[in-house]
Amino acid sequence: MNRVVLFLLFMLPCLGIVSAARADGVDVKVMGQWDFAFGWTNNTTFTKSVINDAGRRDDDHILARQRIRTQINFITSEYLQGVLMFEIGDFNWGNKEEGAALDADGINLKTKRAYLDVMIPGTEISARMGIQGLTLPSTRMGTPVLDTDVAGIVLSSPITDMFSLTGFWIRPFDAYANDGSSLSPAEHMNDEVDVFGLVLPVEGEGWTVTPWAMYGFIGANSGFYDYLFTGSYENTVDVQNSRSKAWWVGTHLELMLFDEALTFGLEGIYGSLSKADLGGFLSASGFAPNMSERVGTRGWFIAATLDYKLDWGIPGIFGWWSSGDDKNADTSGELGRLPVLSNAESCFTPTSFGMAGTFSIGADSLVSSTGVGTWGVGLQLAEVSFIEDLTHTLRVAYYAGTNDADLVRKTRNLNYLKYSMDALYLTDKDSVIEVNFDHSYQIYENLTAVVELGYLHLNADEKTWRKKSGRGWDEGEDAWKAQAMLQYTF
Q: Which residues pair with 302 in a beta bridge?
C-alpha cells in the first residue's frame, strides 16, 4: 500500500502540470503502446552443449509477460514541444522483484525518453535535447552498432532539396557523475564516454545514400568495458586502467525501382576500438590470466536485402557478413569483430528467434542481437495475405560464425570473447538453421494480434566445444517456440 501511495504522489504533480499546460494554451497529446506476450519455448539455453558456456540448466518453458509504454507530448507550436515517455516492464507474471507477483504493488515506473524538440529561430535547424531514441542508418535488418535510447543533443537541417545534415553528441556513460568526495580529480575526468556523429543523407529519385561517421572518447573509469563484455552497468575505478577511443564509418544505400515495387538495400560499416589496458577489469571479472591485458577490436559488417512487392505479398532475400576473431586474439589483444556501442536487444533483426526480430516482447536473440562475428543468408515471403487484415511471413535462414575455432579451444573464459547481449559465440565450425512462421491479425484499428512459430537447429562443432565440458555430446540441438502477442496502440 505504501508503494501505491508513493506512486500516486509522484503522478499528482504530473497531472497538475498537464492541467496548467492546457490552461496556458499548450496542447497535450498522449500516445502509447501496451504489449502482452504468452507462449511456450523449449531448449532456448541449449542445455546439451556448452557453446554458450552456461553449463547444464534448463529454460522456463511458459512465457507470460507484459510491457506498458506511455508517451506525453506537450506541444506549444509546430516549433516547440517537450516529450516524456514512461515505461513499465518488461515484467514476467509472477516475478516478485518485477512487481508482478501475488498482490503486485511493484514500483517499476521508468523514464524511457525525456527531451525537448525545438526549431532554432530564424533557421531550418531542428534541435532535440535530452534522453531520446537514436538509430543509425541501416537496411531493414537493423544496425549492430547503435539503436537505443541515449542522452544527448541532435541537430538536423536540410541543405538543398537533395542533401540534409544531422550532427549529434551523446553521452552514454558517466559513471561517477554524482559521486564526489571519495574520488580524485583524475578519476572524475576519466569516467565519461562522449560520442560525436555526422549523418549526411543524399536523396534522389528512387534512391537514397546515407554516409555516416562517429568518433568516441572512452574514459578509463567509464564502465564501457563492463557493459560491452558483461552487460553490467556497475563500475569501480579499478575496472579499466587507461583511456581509449573508438570510431566508425558507414554507408547505407537504398534503391527503389519499378514504381518502388523492387527495393534493394546495402549497408557497409567499419569500426575500430583502440587497445586499452584492462588489467583491472580482467582481474575483477575473473578472466583467464593467459589473456592479453591490452584489448581492442576492429572489424567489418556488410548487409544486403532485396524485396519485391506483389499484390499478395513481398518475397525477399537477405544476407550479411561480419568479420571475426583470429586464433591469436587472446594473446595479441586484437579482436577481429566490429565494436558495438549499444547492446540493446533490438539492434540486429533479420530473424525473429535466433536474432532480435520478435514482434514486441516475445522470446528471441537465442544466438545474437548484434550479428557480429557471424555471416548468414535467408529467404522470406513477407506480408502474404489472402484474408483481409491477416498477414503471414515465412522465413528460412542459415548462418554461421566467422570466429576462428582454434581460439575457443585454447581460451578458458568465453565471456572475454562474446559481447554481453550475444547469447552464443559462433565459430567458423558452428552453424544454425532457423525457420520462422509468423502471423499478424489486425483485430481493430488499434489492436494487433501476432502469433510467432520458430524453430532453430544449432550445429556446434564437437571438436571445438567438447573439451570444455568433459561430458557427453549430441550432434545438434533444436530449439522451439510458439507464442502469441497482443499490442494495443493509441
A: 268, 321
